[in-house]
Amino acid sequence: MTQFVFGRTKTGHTVTGYCLENSRGAEATILDYGCTVQSLRVPDAEGRLTDVVLGYDTIGEYEENGGYAGAAIGRVANRIGGAEFSLNGETYRLARNDGENHLHGGLKGFDKCIWSAVIKGDAHVFSRRSPAGEENYPGSLDVKITYTLTDDNALRITYDADTDADTIINLTNHSYFNLNGKGSVLGHSLQVLADRFLENDPYCLPTGKLLPAKGTPFDFGEPKQIGRDIDAACTQLTRCGGYDHNFVLSDPVEMKRAAVLHSAESGIRMTVLTTQPGLQVYSGNSLTPRKGKNGVSYGRRDAICLETQVFPNAMAHTHFPSPVLKKNEHYHTETCYQFEISDKQTC
């Protein structure tokens, strides 16, 4: 494992890249800026390494382009309606950075912070203290995010946190996946191990209703091409410009399969496993044309995000899994992205 200077932020902070490599030649680069997965190179069916995540060559591009590419998201992933929540009888008002709502931790979420990094064996551990009042969240939060690239070509991410006062937390990773490395993702096949999804309002906030997926454009119970139904005449799709919905994972076991993404072109299959109850499927609807790594152009629907998490806006819906972390409780979740070769056409 090696490290290198990736660049300097506008405020003069040095950004370091940390390289992970396994015995089979797979490689990952993680930045201490936002705990960002800057690259993830795995073998395709021909044995060539393919970078399966979108990203940029310079720190300036990460700062300027937004989009949370590859970053850790916190304190709370996804949207909080009206940019406020109540906890223990007190209302906390947050930054409105998505219309009237709060998105992905606010104006300076975890994705824009420099993290401390320590190498432990074959893992990289990134940590930081989020002080009480940061983005107006209660309680100081000590967070550790651990990245491990295993010898069976899996990127494992574990999230741990402790707080000195009751607070809310919902951590995820916002990598944009394209198993061909470039081009449209609509020809990829996707399977989601969920028979229900959350209904969204016009602002892509869950209404609280859990809708059946079977027989709808949201039915990914069997693998199908992402693009097959994405432009269907369906209010839920037109509201968000495609998929930007939380799926309710079916399997009650702790570590479960959430989704399987496959490209017949590259032969790469990615299985997502997680301890989380939900999976946000985002089809890159708002990706505007831009230059990415190695001069590759990115555009709308050129990648898909599979974000494992507690349901969005959970504080507004008591029947959702709770994002509350109490003082003296420990937060721990795990998500694994497993890569394999499959020449089988799965859609």
The helix tally amounts to 2
Which band does the percent of strand residues land in?
35-45%
Distance between the termini: 38 Å
CATH architecture: Distorted Sandwich
Mean residue pLDDT:
96
CATH class: Mainly Beta
- Which class do the helix and strand fractions yield? mainly beta
What is the CATH T-level topology? Answer: Beta-galactosidase, Chain A, domain 5
What number of domains? 1
Widest beta sheet: strand line-up: 11-12-13-14-29-23-22-17-20
Relative helix content? under 10%
Shape: globular
Enzyme class: isomerase
Keywords: Carbohydrate metabolism, Isomerase
Pfam family, one: Aldose_epim
Catalytic activity: alpha-D-glucose = beta-D-glucose
Report on the architecture of this protein.
It comes from Sporobacter termitidis DSM 10068. It catalyses: alpha-D-glucose = beta-D-glucose. Keywords: Carbohydrate metabolism, Isomerase. This is Aldose 1-epimerase. Beta-D-galactose binds at residues 78-79, 174-176, 244. The chain has a single domain, classed as Distorted Sandwich (Beta-galactosidase, Chain A, domain 5), CATH 2.70.98.10. 4% of the residues lie in helices and 43% in strands. The chain is globular, with a radius of gyration of 19 Å. A hairpin with a 4-residue loop joins strand 3 and strand 4 (36-43). The model has no long low-confidence stretch (mean pLDDT 96). It is built from two helices and 29 strands. The chain is mainly beta and 347 residues long. The longest helix is centred in the N-terminal third of the chain and has 7 residues, at 59-65. Strands 11-12-13-14-29-23-22-17-20 form a nine-stranded antiparallel beta sheet, with no helix packed on it. It has a five-stranded antiparallel beta sheet with strand order 1-2-3-4-5, with no helix packed on it. A five-stranded antiparallel beta sheet has the order 19-18-21-24-27.
